[in-house]
Amino acid sequence: MRKKTIKVILTKDVQKLGKQGTLIKVKPGYIRNYLVPLKLAEIATTSLINQFALKQKESEIKQIQFTKKCITNKELLENLEKFTIRKKISENGVFFGKVTKKQILDLIIEKVDLTIDLNKNQLELPEMKQLGNYIIEINLTTNVIAKINIEILPE
Questions:
Q1: Which one, out of 39, 55, 95, 131, has a CA that is 20 to 30 A from the CA of 26?
Q2: Rounded to whole angstroms, how far apart are CA atoms 53 and 111?
Q3: Which of 128, 88, 123, 126 shows the shortest CA–CA distance to 105?
C-alpha cells in the first residue's frame, strides 16, 4: 500500500513545516483537518504555483533592496565616532536612573539621517550602571548588525 501525500502551498508561516509560499507534501488528513480550516495552506494547482513563484521573486527583490539600504545605514551609523549621553551621578560614580532604549533611539534619530525606520526592539543594550563607553548592537535585519559606541558622561 502506497502512502498518499498531497502538495500544498503554505499561505502563512507554519512552525516545523515552512515559511509562507513554500511548496510541501503532506498527508490528506493533515490538510483536511488542520491546514485548510485554519487557512494556513491551499492545495497546490499549477496556477497557484505560478502565482506564488511570481510573488516570491518580487519579495526576494524587495528583500535584496532592503538589505542594501540596511548596509548603507550600517555604514552611516558606524562612521560616527560616538554618541554621548549625560547623566547625574552619585559620589561613587554610579549614575541615577538608567539609560533606556528610547533615549538611545532618540539620540540616533537626532544625529543620523537614516533611510529606514528603527524601533527599540532592534537595539541590544549591555548593562549600563557606571560612567564609561559601551558598545550597542543594532539589528537592522537578520544579517546586518551595526555596532555603535555610546559614552556616558557626568552632567
A1: 55
A2: 41
A3: 123
Instruction: Give the integer Cα–Cα distance in Å for 128 and 137.
Output: 14
Tens-digit pLDDT profile for residues 97-111: 888 899 888 888 888
Residue (of 152, 154, 155) closest to 103 by Cα position? 152
pTM higher than 0.70 for the full model? no
pLDDT in tens, 50-88: 888 888 889 889 989 988 988 998 888 888 878 888 888
For the chain, the residue count is: 155
Beta bridge partners of 134: 150
Q: Given this model, what pLDDT does residue 1 score?
A: 55
69, 115 Cβ separation under 8 angstroms = yes
The residue type of 101 is K
